[in-house]
Specification:
Helix content of chain A: over 70%
Low-confidence stretches of chain A: none
Low-confidence stretches of chain B: none
Largest sheet of chain A: none
Shape of chain A: globular
Oligomer: heterodimer
Structural class of chain A: mainly alpha
Largest interface: A-B, 27 and 31 residues
Strand order of the largest sheet of chain B: 6-7-8-3-9-10
Mean pLDDT of chain A: 90
Helix content of chain B: 25-40%
Number of helices of chain B: 9
Mean pLDDT of chain B: 87
């Protein structure tokens, strides 16, 4: 079958639309998180998502409805632990992350019977996204992207130098809270695209790819967004053509883009050094 | 009557129950150039952070432009250069122009957008500090001295009425330092900018600042240079050598 013929199928269209929006979300937020050295929050919140999915399945509630509020709450928990409990960010993420995964395993063990469902969330299936899930994902993505766009310069200033941002009258505490809440929503939405196990890859890889090439902050956001979009669209088609798991293929495409960007930067540096 | 820009009244601050500042009181008038000096760990940076509301004072009152620091919102009037240049992430993707533009945000309302018309203002400050040629360079690729000038440009671009600079000359070579001090002196004289400059460079400060604020947990001296240089109490406190180093260029 020709690759373009796949586009006539509704499930492929939904996968591409939903995946593209989530790619944009992850890539823009990812740049901010990586530069603030907070990128592992994606991993931590993904583990909490595992617990919350288990909770949803346990009570027979649609997991997305349980995951969004619960993961948002835990993201605030990470922030408060960092600010109040004298913990570094990575330790706070570790505390909340282990709580999430242990909770999920305990619930799965107590309930039994939904292990198969739970594992499908662990590895995700972008091709199985339903219409309702797509509408929720697109709507929430638009909200998150709008917030990032409206506060773009505030976020840039705070990411570069939080102290200076405060003296510029930017409410950094409120902005930090907003950012972790947006990250929580993004992580839950990404669950369907690459699965809980690989969410942090979608946040980190496009961002670090962009950091190899970008000169300015806006460039970094744009390159990161392009890399993420290319990996989702490319990953979906490659997985269809080669009959591979889509989530893992998206992540591997991302990784290859990172390697290419890294090689390009090294080559450019060597060429500059040779010229001078 | 001179306008009071900063009023600090009976300020106390402790960190983990260890007193850092004790009963500090002073006031800075509009157009003053104050050199804030003291040994390492004397509380200079803490005092600056308290004045800017970056830390909350234990006891005492701080007023900026007549407003209590907890209610202060007129950030466009304040320019700030933090001390921690070493904390600057060398891999951060940002050009010199992008970083300098951040200094304009305090004067903007939500959503704080850098307009095309701001380019002229940014170009002006880059020119003033002699860094126009590196305007489109990534900040992480610059030398320490150039990065310092970029951050100084960010603090100055909004033409603030009060400029607080924490160790601004630490990474500058002697020539750049002299040129930087002349720019500050011009700002003070032409725009009546009030300047607080935290420094270890007690040899140079006397040449430019008109007031000296010496702290070592407590306020040891605050006043004009003539007063400092003629004070026997200061000679007894700091020793004739230190007093001479500060006073010989004034």
């Amino acid at each position: 079958m020709e690759l373009l013929e796949y586009l006539q199928y509704g499930f492929i269209q939904r996968a591409l639309i939903c995946g593209s929006f989530i790619a944009l979300l992850c890539s823009t937020l990812g740049v901010i998180l990586v530069l603030r050295r907070f990128s592992l929050i994606g991993d931590g919140l993904a583990h909490v998502t595992f617990g919350s999915v288990a909770l949803g399945l346990f009570f027979r509630v649609y997991p997305l409805y349980v995951s969004i509020p619960l993961v948002m709450l835990c993201s605030l928990g990470i922030l408060k632990l960092t600010q109040r409990a004298r913990l570094y960010g990575d330790a706070a993420i570790g505390v909340v992350s282990s709580f999430g995964i242990a909770g999920g395993v305990l619930l799965a063990s107590v309930a039994g019977g939904f292990n198969v469902d739970l594992f499908s969330y662990l590895f995700g299936n972008i091709l199985a996204i339903g219409q309702v899930e797509m509408y929720i994902s697109v709507a929430l993505s638009i909200v998150v992207l709008a917030v990032i766009l409206l506060f773009f310069n505030d976020i840039f200033s705070m990411t570069f130098d939080e102290e200076f941002a405060r003296v510029s009258g930017i409410g950094t505490e409120r902005l930090n809270t907003t950012l972790v809440l947006l990250t929580a929503v993004t992580v839950v939405l990404s669950m369907n695209v690459v699965g809980i196990m690989l969410i942090s890859a979608l946040l980190i890889l496009p961002a670090v790819t962009a950091l190899q090439l970008a000169k300015g902050f806006k460039d970094a956001m744009l390159i990161s967004a392009c890399a993420a979009l290319a990996s989702v669209v490319g990953g979906v088609f490659i997985s269809l053509a080669m009959n591979l798991p889509t989530g893992a293929t998206i992540v591997m495409t991302n990784f290859l883009l990172f390697l290419t960007a890294f090689a390009f930067r090294v080559a450019r540096q060597r060429s500059h050094a040779a010229k001078s | 009557m001179p306008v009071k820009i900063i009023e600090v009244d009976h300020l106390h601050f402790s960190y983990n129950s260890i007193p850092v500042l004790e009963d500090v009181s002073f006031c800075v008038e509009a157009g003053s150039f104050v050199g804030l000096v003291g040994p390492n760990g004397s509380g200079k940076t803490t005092l600056v952070k308290l004045i800017l509301g970056l830390a909350t004072c234990g006891r005492g009152v701080i007023r900026l432009f007549g407003q209590d620091i907890s209610d202060f919102r007129l950030w466009a009037k304040v320019g700030y250069l933090p001390q921690s240049l070493s904390a600057l992430n060398p891999y951060f993707p940002s050009t010199v122009r992008e970083i300098v533009a951040l200094g304009l945000l305090s004067g903007k309302r939500f959503p704080r957008i850098i307009a095309r018309s701001d380019k002229r203002v940014i170009d002006g400050v880059l020119d003033l500090l002699g860094i126009t040629s590196i305007g489109d360079t990534r900040v992480g690729e610059l030398s320490g001295g150039q990065q310092q000038r970029v951050l100084i440009a960010r603090a100055m671009v909004n033409e603030p009425a009060l400029l607080i600079l924490d160790e601004p000359t630490a990474a500058l070579d002697p020539e750049a330092r002299e040129s930087f001090f002349s720019i500050l002196k011009n700002l003070q004289e032409i725009r009546n900018t009030s300047i607080i400059l935290v420094t270890h460079d007690i040899g140079s400060i006397g040449k430019y600042a008109d007031h000296l604020l010496w702290i070592d947990r407590k306020l040891l001296f605050y006043g004009g240079f003539d007063e400092f240089c003629q004070s026997d109490r200061m000679t007894r406190l700091f020793g004739a050598d230190s007093q001479h180093i500060i006073c010989h260029r004034h």
